[in-house]
Amino acid sequence: TAPIGYKLTITGNINGDLYWITDQARLDQSDYSGIQARLYPQVKVDWRFPFVREMGNVRQILEPRVALIAAPPRLNTSKIPNEDSLNFEFDDTNLFRFNRYPGYDRVSDGVRLVYGLGTTFLGNRGGRTEFFLGQSFRILGNNNLDESTGLRDRISDLVGRVTIAPGPYLNLTYRFRLEPTKLKLRRNEVTLVASILRTNLAVTYLDFPDDNPDDGIPRRREISFGLSANLTSNWTVFGGARYDLGDTKGFINWRFGGQFKNECCTVRMTYSRSFTRDRDFQPDTTLLIQIVLKHLGQIATSGG
Predict the structure, then answer these.
(1) Distance of alpha carbon 8 from alpha carbon 30, whole angstroms
(2) Phi, psi (5° rounding) for residue 112?
């Protein structure tokens, strides 16, 4: 941290993956079986400079941020099956991460420059309002992502977030993704979180417009909600569901359960139903029981 106020963080790590693969279907219609290994370093140089000023009863924080993230190119191959990184969504939460994928099967390789600007207004009596807008520029690497991800071109889509929290019991967050030249909306996500007495409610509306019919990915519109209630200091009940608002209207999944927690252990039971159909995936029902012995670890059992 420099005397004038900016903060420079340099982070490095090295990763290794080893796969034993049998009958992996490749893009050229051939099957692959064998062992695949990859060893790769990653380096990130992250610079941020917060500015603060007082405006009556409000304090404003303005923070530009720039990061250079580097890894070897061509780390992804069709010989390695993609099982844990299919549901990839580019947004403000993974803009500055080493690996923007949710899993390990795919890696954000190459060199990219990431930049953004955030501002926060903090009330002296509580409450806050936040705004963030950022983007990524690919310096070196392959464009091995679909057009719908917003990272196909060298200059990525713009990702942003607006958060309004007038108090500790209410939070409204709007996330969006914009096409960089015409500023056309490619993603809308609105989340409302409310806490009333011992009850917590979260509702999310998600909309991915179908602005590229040729990519084979239809418009995605859904709403999800989660509700939990603390009956006592030890007992909690919860439930939730996701509902498809698109052409195939209907529930995607739902769940409900209960939890007991004290100073020694946590016991959580969840009963869920999934309605997803896709090749090898069929609707199923799951009963999951989790037992956490504090300071000893976790035991999980499930039945379908």
Answers:
(1) 47
(2) -145, 150
Answer yes or no: is pLDDT of 215 > 60.
no
| pTM of the predicted model as reported, rounded to 2 decimal places | 0.82
Lowest-confidence segment of 93-97, 182-186, 189-193, 199-203 by average pLDDT: 182-186
Strand locations in the chain (E): 7-25, 31-48, 51-55, 58-70, 111-123, 128-140, 158-167, 170-178, 185-196, 199-208, 220-230, 235-244, 250-261, 265-274, 284-293, 297-303
CA distance readout (Å), 298 to 236, 239, 268, 286, 293: 19, 22, 11, 19, 6
Give residue-wise pLDDT tens across range 150-162: 888 899 999 999 9
Three-state secondary structure call for residue 22: strand
| Alpha carbon 187 to its chain's center | 13
Q: How far apart, in whole angstroms, are the C-alpha atoms of residue 44 and residue 100?
A: 13
- Grouping H, G, I as helix, E, B as strand and the rest as coil, residue 96 is coil
Nearest of 156, 154, 120 to residue 135 by alpha carbon:
156
Euclidean distance between CA atoms 53 and 241, whole angstroms:
43
For the record, the structure tokens of 145 come out as 């992502």
**∠ at Cα 138 (135, 140), nearest 5°?**
165
CA distance 92 to 135: 9
Judge contact between 172 and 202, C-beta under 8 A.
no
User: Hunting for tokens 């890696």 — which residue is that?
Assistant: 107
Q: Are 104 and 85 in contact (CB under 8 A)?
A: yes
Residues 144-191 have pLDDT tens digits of 777 778 888 899 999 999 999 998 899 999 999 999 998 999 989 999
